[in-house]
Amino acid sequence: MTTYLKTKTILLSAGAAIALAACVPSGYPEANNYDQNPNVNRNTGAITGALIGGAIGATRKGDEKLTKAAAGAVVGGLIGGAIGNQMDRQAQELRRDLTTNGVSVVRSGNQLIVTMPQDVLFATDSYNLRPDLQRDLYTLAGSLNRYPNTTVEVVGHTDNTGDAAYNMKLSRERARSVASVLEAGGVPNSRVITSGRGESDPIASNLTAEGRQANRRVEFIIRPNN
Question: What residues does the OmpA-like domain cover (predicted)?
């Protein structure tokens, strides 16, 4: 067998092995992947890293091109798998430590979304944080400090009660207030992004009191650094 064919076979075999390692049962919502397969982030990260590594390695020509692609796929897979493992651990710890009623931790691909209801953080129509309900924010800050290779986007949301422009401003001020606590907890401001979406991104119907309560929230989107 020529060097070309041998290297091609190795590359294809490595790709197949990585793909099989990432297989999970179909039919489950993405948010529930953790319950079905606790290694889903690691496997997804491994595939992503392998594809990136393979693409980088494939910049050479001839047999050397395939050899570099195979090596790049292996290295990229290891890097991606490490990122996935980190996100797995952080999600487990946050679910364990954030015990306030209504706070949730959901994984979506290679990012974590922590949601805190408005009532956990603010009085109605206010962006001043309640001093008695900041424990979860410092817990989250501690998690971000333990996993420094991430960025967190803090996003404020409101229901549709009142003026839309006012709600947008309120959501932005709430995001900034929350971000200031994370920074007071030791998270560098270079890792914290804030934004407000007002009433534009509801997760429930604004036609009921329960739905409006669910829509009033702050989300923390944690992403690994590239």
Answer: 109-226
First vs last Cα of the chain: how many Å apart? 39
**Residue 200 DSSP label:** S
CA distance 163 to 184: 32
Pair of tokens at residue 46? 């491994």
Q: What is the mean pLDDT of each run of 10 residues along the chain (226 residues)?
A: 51 49 42 46 53 53 54 47 82 94 92 93 89 89 96 97 96 97 97 97 96 96 92
What is the structure's pLDDT at 104?
A: 96
Cα separation, 172 vs 3, in Å, equals 59
Write phi, then psi, for 101 (nearest 5 degrees): -60, 130
The fourth-level CATH superfamily of domain 91-224 is OmpA-like domain (3.30.1330.60)
* Nearest by Cα to 97 from 152, 154, 150, 136: 136
Q: Where are the domains of the chain?
A: 91-224
CA–CA dist 149, 142 (Å, integer): 13
104 DSSP 8-state letter: E
Q: What is the pTM of this model?
A: 0.67
List, in sequence order, the alpha helices (H) in the chain: 3-21, 33-36, 40-57, 62-97, 118-121, 135-146, 164-184, 209-215
For residues 107 and 85, give the distance between their C-alpha atoms in angstroms, rounded to a whole number.
13
- Please give the full DSSP string across 169-185, using - where no structure is assigned: HHHHHHHHHHHHHHHHT
Q: Letter for the amino acid at 158?
A: T
